Amino acid sequence: MNGSIELIVLGTTKIGEGALVLHTLSREMGRRGFIVRPGKKASASLFLPLSILEADVVENPKSELWGLRNISAKDSLEGIRGNIHKNTMTLFLSEVLFRTLREGVLEDGLYEWCIGSILTLNALEGDFANFHIRWLLELAGALGFRPSWEDVAPFAGDNAQALRQMLTSDFGESMLLPLSGAVRNSMAESLVRYLEFHTEQPIRVKSLAVLRELYR
Asked: What is the pLDDT of residue 18?
């Protein structure tokens, strides 16, 4: 497809001098990598995790790796970029998406849910330390698993009570649950295992270690 498209950045891989593969999620193409050559004047902030971009797709008849040009930010996400804790969280969220979603597979409604969750995190001014826990549960729902307590319980471990509270609370209440850093970290690990079980693939999230440091 040629033409303009809206994309969410999931990560980048440098290839050679001045080029990189931009791993993205879009409504029309699902998870897909594109080759981009940003140039020296391009802002590095364009390619930060969960940036929302607009760009023109350039098909390559000789390769499955198409290109992007005329890349611009659709939203500055100042509420995220000005906060080190939110930026660290987006590193984790984008990696979970990258490692959970299969290349080219379209999940109905997933892109819209992702956009909504990014804009929600951007807008939150406080009490967002539980956001990634709630987000993992909502991701399971967006992927069609519809987590119930009976479904999640085998993965809860020592955090059964906290995880049950998270499941039965509305969004606002879930942000206010008094969880320690250690409990948040353990819950995140439990829910990644839950996603692994339902997607039937390993999800090795390297940035989980960064979150552990953030919420010790």
From this structure: 82
